[in-house]
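Q: My labmate handed me this sequence with no annotations at all. I'd like to see what the chain might look like in three dimensions before we decide whether it's worth expressing. Could you predict it?
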Amino acid sequence: MGRGKLIIFSAPSGTGKSTIISWLMKEHKELNLAFSISCTSRAPRGTEQNGVEYFFLTPEEFRQRIDNDEFLEYEEVYENRFYGTLKSQVERQLEAGQNVVFDVDVKGGVNIKNFYGDEALSIFIQPPSIGELRRRLEGRGTDAPEVIDQRIARAEFELTFAEKFDKVVINDILEYAEADALEIIQQFLND
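A: Here is what I predict for the chain of 191 residues:
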């Protein structure tokens, strides 16, 4: 088994990106997809475990690793709320022949694509509209109204990045979006 490739997914919150990634990983084992485990300075949610969904760091630990140039990409999404990807983690996975999946914000997605070039495929998952995105976020029932307003404002900014990605998948009907993502990834891995 040779060196793996990178598949980058970015999208505004609530677009269905995580649902699409989960489906690909569960239903299409032949793609040999493995998550890039990112770091975050936020607290674990629900049943999240350190080293599984994320490496959970304090803001201070995160800043120290930034100073040491250990990140492929990182972003301070909100004050003291960092997300980032360790270079060493990605290289270990690629060398093991895994096709590394990134679930990252738009700036991180662009940075990873720039760093790895043709070794990486970047996919932007787009909601059918901002109104539909608001409806989905409200339907989750997990965020306060002011948090939803913040996410919508951020989504409007993030949508301006779509053109910087290799491919855009519009998630209007989930099954179609999943099929589109699968076809795009299969073509990339077979090139």
